[in-house]
Amino acid sequence: MKGISTDVIRLGKKYRLQNFGDVYEFEVIQFLQGENFKFKDLSTLEIYEYKDLVEFGKGKDFEIVEI
């Protein structure tokens, strides 16, 4: 696994997540229980939860980086 851990993700910061070839650029807007958090996609402005993006696992290309 490359990039940063979900433990160091901070509220209001912007990140890029890559998993199974999909790339999301987002801003964290709310922390939920455990390692889950809500974020706003910077491209579509939709709100997602982190657990929804990794519910099928983490691919070989999984990476989170701060932007």
What's the helical proportion of residues? under 10%
Question: So how many helices?
Answer: 1
Order of helices and strands: EEEEEHE
The count of DSSP E runs of length 2 or more, i.e. the number of strands, is 6
Sheet of most strands: 6 strands, mixed
Assign the CATH topology. Answer: SH3 type barrels
Q: Which value, in Å, is the CA radius of gyration?
A: 11 Å
Which term fits the overall shape? Answer: globular
Overview of this protein structure:
The structure is a single chain. With 67 residues, this protein is mainly beta. It has one domain (2-66): SH3 type barrels, CATH 2.30.30. The chain contains one helix and six strands. A six-stranded mixed β-sheet has the order 1-6-2-3-4-5. The longest helix is centred in the last third of the chain and has 4 residues, at 50-53. It is globular and about 25 Å long. The two termini are 18 Å apart. The mean pLDDT is 92.
Question: How is this structure best summarized?
Answer:
This protein is mainly beta and 67 residues long. It has one helix and six strands, in the order E-E-E-E-E-H-E. It has a six-stranded mixed β-sheet with strand order 1-6-2-3-4-5.
